[in-house]
Amino acid sequence: xxxxxxxxxxxxxxxxxxxxxxxxxxxxxxxxxxxxxxxxxxxxxxxxxxxxxxxxxxxxxxxxxxxxxxxxxxxxxxxxxxxxxxxxxxxxxxxxxxxxxxxxxxxxxxxxxxxxxxxxxxxxxxxxxxxxxxxxxxxxxxxxxxxxxxxxxxxxxxxxxxxxxxxxxxxxxxxxxxxxxxxxxxxxxxxxxxxxxxxxxxxxxxxxxxxxxxxxxxxxxxxxxxxxxxxxxxxxxxxxxxxxxxxxxxxxxxxxxxxxxxxxxxxxxxxxxxxxxxxxxxxxxxxxxxxxxxxxxxxxxxxxxxxxxxxxxxxxxxxxxxxxxxxxxxxxxxxxxxxxxxxxxxxxxxxxxxxxxxxxxxxxxxxxxxxxxxxxxxxxxxxxxxxxxx
Length: 390
Fold this sequence. Notes:
CATH class: Alpha Beta
Strand content: 15-25%
Low-confidence stretches: 1-9
Helix content: 25-40%
Number of helices: 12
Order of helices and strands: HHEHHEHEHEEEEEEHEHEEEEHEHHHE
């Protein structure tokens, strides 16, 4: 694995990025100095991603698209939005009047959804966006304004979840950015890996023992070798509960990289799923390039399902992104948009490939549907029904 200096040289960090990195490293180092034991990895990840004005998702540096660090499904074109819209309109018409997107990225998905719903005569009364980053809010406004200016007055940015919400809530690649804890199986049992700071660099450090009852049930057995490393995400339970609390009636659709728990904590998955992304390159060094790279870990969807049930939500379905989008007729849109221009057709074909192929996003990204007081099930969960795997 490259050193931090080698990565910085390769990605040609700007003077602004270097300043952000140095300030954020200093901020986190001060936190560590205040606690002789070091800080938990979740606290490090929270600061690295969300520290005001400095964290990766707060600092205004480009993240999305070809010139950024990664491309999400909505950035590839409008097929993802098309599939999502078809699922939304399969429900009671009143539920599509109010939409809430959590973490809207560049605003591409919001713009495409609004355009497509308007074309169907189903433009929502309100489209809420929950986005903590002021920089991303400005980018989202610009994108939506350029795509669908006639509906921009229906878009409202929120600082917190609304109360008594009736409608559809959705989030694409948000769960995986909720800070996680890193754990390791050692000779003396499971231990929590934290972060310390020495010789001008962050480093790993065991900071605490973990009681068996604080672990997912699968990890409480003895099938894991010493040195087995994985992640837990305690904050998911309260996050799901907060969604349930705000939802009076409606649907929640969550899209993310992840597995059912049996696969997530498979004995052969010895190094977890923690990954970082910079310049479209993936690696597993989260303690480098602080504030300048995305840090993510896959989602334990069994945990999500259990948290949903405990919060009073119903589970409508669990499937792959491929199954969800294909059932929601994205191939029909490709056929309808067939062009005499070979380049356009090729671009659409590539978009389908990336969204649905097993080696791309098709299988590793999962979709879970949760609901409250909804009599019908949204389309998208029948073609590749994987609910039994949870």
